């Protein structure tokens, strides 16, 4: 029988002890271009695969799309003012590839570059450090039509060209660059399960797009460093701890393979120059041809690793599932927040387990040489209500307080944690979930565009102030 929905019981933010981080830790917030910018057809911007995907019937919740989103393209000055009000040290945003190069290659749209020029200048004027992500899933649609996007090795070179164009314009002011955001998610949801753009379902596409994204990261990093030797360059992964679904030996036995699929599939090539052995053994039939020089390129040292962590995934032995033999149970009851057996779940149906963030940071320290890490996304969707001009989102305050405490604990134990970015600065277009899922610490009225700082935003401001010394 399904558990009845329960309310969260949380402490008020004023009663919480603020986590203390090492001196110099930066605190910021993250967004991505398609989720907030809007202005989809303005000033020469080309179509992305998400423009096309979100306009297809049944692909997103209620047919929602990013045509307008948060209208950040015209409201960016107001949004930077909110960042300043919150006391953010840094802002992680993504640059829309089709806004810079409408067809993904060739001609450059100067008006697109002008927008990011204005945004960067506004951030610096407000004392907010810009962290720019070059790719957050918005492949230019024309490029996708021509060669399948990252299905084609040819796109690796086009992506490096795009990185060069962008850094030439912004690199005198932007010193922190993330090449690609969550290559595993783009490949798995876009090319394996088909629930994200471009909506394809073929295992061979999955592995090929993973490899080509990693290679594109390496080539882009090379171009960035050549143009700006002082630039700091990294890649952001989604790190999803694998935990057994129950205590059976069979379930515990598949955890290592699940970790290889979920996490090490990206991390091992970056830091060890090889794909995980169990993955290749079981899925080698679907693996692309890898040139002998590819892994040397992919494993070139980065300045930092970006880590996005929201929740763990419970895994179970499932011999009936071909090749994998493993069941992944991230969403036991999707799209609902509830409590069951003492475990909390967000409105995405994701388990709340703060110690997983600690586990992730320790795993990076112990397995990959303690590279400098920025937590580039961490946050939660809950059911928010704007009442009397306030949003009392205690569940999110509790989530952030517990997770930042675990991050501070990891830093205290020697993990080289350089910064924490909450996801997200504001409510936005949440991909296939449309506008029904709210992750922001700033509420957005999607009819009027009005922004309202939530209680979680004020709590985050207090956290930042508590760590200023």
Question: How does this structure look, described?
Answer:
- The chain has 469 residues and is an alpha/beta fold.
- It has one domain (13-466): TIM Barrel.
- 39% of the residues lie in helices and 16% in strands.
- It is built from 16 helices and 18 strands.
- The chain has helices at residues 33-36, 49-54, 72-86, 97-100, 110-125, 141-147, 154-170, 183-192, 203-227, 249-253, 255-272, 277-283, 294-298, 355-367, 394-412, 455-466; strands at 26-30, 90-94, 129-135, 176-181, 232-238, 242-244, 304-308, 313-317, 326-329, 338-340, 343-345, 351-352, 373-377, 386-387, 390-391, 417-423, 442-444, 451-453.
- Strand 14 and strand 15 (390-391) form a beta hairpin.
- Helix 3 packs parallel to helix 5, helix 8 packs antiparallel against helix 9 and helix 15 runs parallel beside helix 16 (455-466).
- The chain is globular, with a radius of gyration of 21 Å.
Question: Summary?
Answer:
The chain is α/β, with parallel strands linked by helices. It has 16 helices and 18 strands. 39% of the residues lie in helices and 16% in strands.
Structural topology:
Elements lengths: L25 E5 L2 H4 L12 H6 L17 H15 L3 E5 L2 H4 L9 H16 L3 E7 L5 H7 L6 H17 L5 E6 L1 H10 L10 H25 L4 E7 L3 E3 L4 H5 L1 H18 L4 H7 L10 H5 L5 E5 L4 E5 L8 E4 L8 E3 L2 E3 L5 E2 L2 H13 L5 E5 L8 E2 L2 E2 L2 H19 L4 E7 L18 E3 L6 E3 L1 H12 L3
Parallel strand pairs: 1-2, 1-16, 2-3, 3-4, 4-5, 5-7, 6-8, 7-13, 13-16
Antiparallel strand pairs: 8-9, 10-11, 11-12, 14-15, 17-18
């Amino acid at each position: 029988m399904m558990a009845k929905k329960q309310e969260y019981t949380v402490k008020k933010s004023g009663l919480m002890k603020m986590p203390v981080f090492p001196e110099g830790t930066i605190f910021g917030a993250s967004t991505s271009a398609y989720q907030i910018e809007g202005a989809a057809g303005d000033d020469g911007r080309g179509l992305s695969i998400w423009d096309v995907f979100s306009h297809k019937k049944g692909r997103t919740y209620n047919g929602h799309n990013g045509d307008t989103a948060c209208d950040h393209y015209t409201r960016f000055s107001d949004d930077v003012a909110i960042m300043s009000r919150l006391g953010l040290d840094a802002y992680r945003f993504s640059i829309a590839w089709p806004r810079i190069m409408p067809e993904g290659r060739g001609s450059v749209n100067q008006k697109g570059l002008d927008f990011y020029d204005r945004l960067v200048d506004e951030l610096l004027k407000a004392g907010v450090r810009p962290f720019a992500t070059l790719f957050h899933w918005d492949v230019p649609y024309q490029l996708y039509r021509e060669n399948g996007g990252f299905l084609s090795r040819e796109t690796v070179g086009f992506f490096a060209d795009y990185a060069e164009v962008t850094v030439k314009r912004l690199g005198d002011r932007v010193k922190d660059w993330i090449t690609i955001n969550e290559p595993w998610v783009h490949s798995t949801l876009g090319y394996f399960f088909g629930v994200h753009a471009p909506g394809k379902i073929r295992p061979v596409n999955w592995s090929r797009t993973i490899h080509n994204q990693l290679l594109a990261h390496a080539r882009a990093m090379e171009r960035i460093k050549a143009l700006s030797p002082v630039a700091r360059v990294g890649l952001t992964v989604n790190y999803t701890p694998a935990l057994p679904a129950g205590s059976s030996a069979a379930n515990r036995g598949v955890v290592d393979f699940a970790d290889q699929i979920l996490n090490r599939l990206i991390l091992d090539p970056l830091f060890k120059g090889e794909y995980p052995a169990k993955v290749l053994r079981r899925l080698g039939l679907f693996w692309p041809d890898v040139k002998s020089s590819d892994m040397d390129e992919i494993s070139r040292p980065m300045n930092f690793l970006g880590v996005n962590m929201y929740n763990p995934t419970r895994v179970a032995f499932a011999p009936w599932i071909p090749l994998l033999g493993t069941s992944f149970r991230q969403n036991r009851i999707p799209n609902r927040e509830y409590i069951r057996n003492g475990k909390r779940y967000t409105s995405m149906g994701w388990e709340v387990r703060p110690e997983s963030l600690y586990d992730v940071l320790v795993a990076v320290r112990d397995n990959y040489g303690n590279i400098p890490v920025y937590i580039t996304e961490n946050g939660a969707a809950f059911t928010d209500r704007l009442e009397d001009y306030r949003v009392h989102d205690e569940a999110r305050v509790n989530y952030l307080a517990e997770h930042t405490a675990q991050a501070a604990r990891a830093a205290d134990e020697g993990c080289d944690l350089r910064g924490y970015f909450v996801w997200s600065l504001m409510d936005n277009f949440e991909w296939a979930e449309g506008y029904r899922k709210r992750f922001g610490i700033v509420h957005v009225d999607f009819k009027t565009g009005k922004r309202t700082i939530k209680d979680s935003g004020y709590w985050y401001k207090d956290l930042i102030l508590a760590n200023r010394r």
